[in-house]
Specification:
Chain A: It comes from Alsobacter ponti. The complex is a heterodimer of chains A (227) and B (477). By secondary structure, chain A is an alpha/beta fold. Chain A is 33% helix and 22% strand. The model of chain A has no long low-confidence stretch (mean pLDDT 96). Chain B is built from 23 helices and twelve strands. Classes of the chains: A alpha/beta (227), B alpha/beta (477).
């Protein structure tokens, strides 16, 4: 710690003096601990509490309103053909960087004409396919986590970011996503990065004109797997 | 660039801004877009007003327990393999960051958008240490090229027009073909993307701010639309977060509550494009991410605002809605405020951070119309807090002689109600008679500062007090 304990202790002491507390008061400490342990949900909007089928429809509508594109397929085995079709429709080269994720590796990429490679991106990939941890219907938001199988660089460096998400992983509201993160990583634990992505990169910094493709992907395409 | 304030010259700054045709044209982009977009997106979410209450309550709870949540936060960051550095003031924060950069042997540092970085004058300190800071938010990049401060907390270059950006790009990107076409904003964006992409890949250290720090998990959160903050933190070997103490919230769910009002209030989006939750450095098995993760927590006077009327200001989540809706900001823009934070939130926060003796003009630059408070997602009573500063300024005899004698003159009448009624009745009747043809004045003696920029409406009917009396009588019948 570059400033030693002096700065830390003085800041905490000033906070306590300003608040008129000594930091040891039981009810106050317990109040904070209790909130950290229970993580109360707060107000969840009605649109975040839809049944599963409507949830996917809302996710799709909201993602498209944020200028993402969405295709739906019946099974994971249909994903490569759907991706190949998306690339063809957009006149894009048939070459993709795949996340080294077992779910993606198990898909029949060999049945398409796509040239595939696997791993993180170093900036040289035009198109990448990653697997999302889940989605949130209320705003059409993808949730992607870092890890050995799902590199974060794939979400930001390529011009065209494609994300596969299972319909069963699409939650209604952010709070349900946090519940699943806690189930997966443990209460109070997080992966290095959780990315919420709502549409492609954009900027309004020049005369408040909305332009897509600022620093991240120019285009975000989502493949929802129904099974 | 330093954080040296020109707030004491607010009046001169404002006069210059009002006469600046380029600026006035650019400000035209603020007066409508932000307001309409916010209103539309708020109308689409029935729970929006209730979520504002929820956000306010969470921030209040966090501030009342700030010491406990900061300690919990620190513990979790450390458990995740990160490092927390505490800084009492700007100097300590700069030194902590420079020490990390030096240890990393950094030559180039990419930066996500951070108002705290502006507050501590970080870029100048990095340059003095022969480390090149590269702002990567498009707006911040543009103003860095111009050696300017941001004029808005979420749209830093909102005071500029595209032609000005074009000439800056031609001046600085002189390795590119001089004959290239940059007449469209999309071409400017494309050029910045290409130039900055190389910088992202070459940087040794990435510095971001934080919209929230989460005590439950030791997580820092950034919210962006461009993705620059993400490329800043995932590509270099070292990620430094700079954040002030009041950014801490208890849990992931609390952050979600506040995120529901942040983008809607700021840009009128349902959700910003990228909301990124970062916890510690990359795990050993991870495919990518930084090897080191540092958080510099800055106080800089905030801990002393707790327990005072200004504690409410520490709820601020920096959405910019107050300035987007402020008629004073619309008229003079952000630079006139003379320091890092403009608009109503700046008028309240700046005197707390640099002193009311330097920033006393700012809380006076308000018509108390109340629009700022009516749109604030965490319901900060901004007009009330500005009034507190005016009172303190007056009590400390910092107000100029003209203001004090004007108030004394008004006070003389206010303490003599019969005389006050007579004087206002005569004055209003006289002005009303003089302006009876046009209904307004294009110029008035002693009111040139008003009529130079807009007409003064001629009084119609009786004084406020006489109208009020009539209405009360009407209601009684």
């Amino acid at each position: 710690m570059s400033n030693g304990l002096g700065a830390r202790e003085e800041i905490l002491r000033t906070i306590r003096r300003s608040l008129g507390v000594n930091g040891q008061e039981r009810p106050r400490v317990d109040g904070a601990r209790d909130r950290l342990e229970r993580s109360p949900k707060g107000l969840v909007p009605e649109r975040g509490q839809l049944p599963p089928a409507e949830r996917v429809a809302l996710f799709r509508a909201q993602a498209e309103a944020s200028f993402a594109t969405v295709d739906e397929v019946d099974t994971a085995a249909d994903v490569p053909a759907s991706v190949a079709d998306y690339l063809r429709r957009n006149n894009l080269p048939a070459r993709v960087r795949l996340a080294p994720d077992p779910r993606i590796a198990a898909m029949p990429w060999g049945q398409t004409a796509l040239e595939t490679s696997s791993g993180r991106s170093d900036g040289g990939d035009l198109i990448a396919v990653n697997h999302a941890f889940g989605g949130v219907a209320e705003t059409g938001t993808l949730a992607l986590v870092s890890g050995p199988d799902t590199p974060t660089t794939l979400n930001f460096l390529p011009d065209y970011a494609i994300a596969v998400v299972s319909a069963k992983d699409i939650e209604g509201a952010y709070e349900q996503l946090w519940d699943r993160i806690r189930q997966r990583y443990g209460k109070g634990q997080m992966p290095r990065t959780v990315n919420w992505v709502t549409g492609p990169s954009r900027s309004g910094d020049i005369e408040q004109t909305l332009l897509l493709g600022a620093h991240g992907p120019r285009s975000v395409h989502i493949v929802v797997v129904r099974d | 660039m330093t954080a040296q304030p020109t707030s004491p010259q607010f009046k001169q700054n404002a006069t210059r801004a009002l006469a600046d045709a380029q600026l006035q044209r650019a400000l035209g982009n603020v007066r409508q877009g932000f307001i309409e977009k916010r209103a539309a997106v708020a109308a689409k979410l029935p729970e929006f007003e209730a979520l504002r209450d929820s956000a306010r309550d969470i921030k209040n709870h966090a501030l009342e327990h700030l010491d406990i949540y900061l300690e919990s936060y620190e513990k979790k960051v450390t458990e995740a393999g990160g490092h927390v550095h505490w800084a009492r003031d700007a100097r300590e924060a700069r030194e902590a960051i420079l020490a990390i950069c030096r240890k990393a042997g950094a030559k180039t540092v990419t930066k996500g958008k951070s108002m705290i970085s502006e507050e501590i004058g970080l870029n100048a300190a990095l340059e003095d240490a022969s480390i090149t800071p590269v702002e990567t938010d498009l707006g911040e990049y543009i103003i860095q090229l111009r050696n300017e401060m941001p004029s808005h907390i979420i749209a830093p270059a909102v005071h500029l027009n595209a032609t000005q950006v074009e000439s800056d790009f031609r001046r600085v990107h002189n390795h590119l073909d001089a004959a290239r076409d940059l007449s469209e904003p999309v071409q400017l964006l494309g050029e910045a993307r290409a130039v900055l992409r190389e910088r992202f890949l070459a940087a040794d250290v990435g510095i971001t701010g934080a919209n929230f720090l989460i005590a439950e998990t030791g997580t820092s959160v950034i919210v962006t639309n461009e993705g620059n903050g993400d490329l800043t933190q995932i590509l270099p070997r070292v990620h430094i977060v700079i954040a002030s103490i009041e950014k801490v919230v208890p849990t992931l769910d609390d952050a979600a509550q506040i995120l529901r009002v942040l983008a809607r209030s700021a840009t009128g989006q349902e959700m910003s494009v990228y909301t990124t939750f970062s916890t510690g450095p990359r795990r050993p098995e991870d495919a990518d991410g930084p090897d080191e993760y540092h958080v510099v927590i800055l106080d800089n006077g905030r801990s002393s605002m707790l327990g005072t009327a200004f504690q409410d200001m520490l709820r601020c989540i920096r959405c910019g809605a107050c300035m987007n809706h402020c008629p004073v900001y619309h008229a003079v823009g952000g630079h006139a405020y003379g320091w890092v934070y403009p608009g109503p939130m700046g008028a309240v926060l700046t005197p707390s951070l640099i002193g009311v003796d330097k920033a006393g003009h700012l809380p006076n630059a308000s018509t108390f119309c109340g629009r700022c408070e009516s749109v604030c997602p965490v319901r900060i009573p901004l007009p009330k807090l500005m009034r507190h500063w005016r009172e303190r300024e007056f009590e400390r005899h910092l107000s100029p002689a003209t203001v004090r004698s004007g108030l004394a003159f008004w006070g003389f009448f206010a303490r003599r109600p019969a005389l006050y009624r007579l004087a206002t009745r005569v004055a209003m009747a006289g002005l009303g008679w003089l302006g009876r043809d046009k209904g307004k004045f294009a110029s008035l003696p002693l009111a040139g500062n008003w009529t130079d920029y807009r007409d003064f409406p001629a009084p119609q009917g009786g004084t406020f007090q006489s109208q009020w009396k009539q209405r009360r009588q009407g209601a009684a019948k």
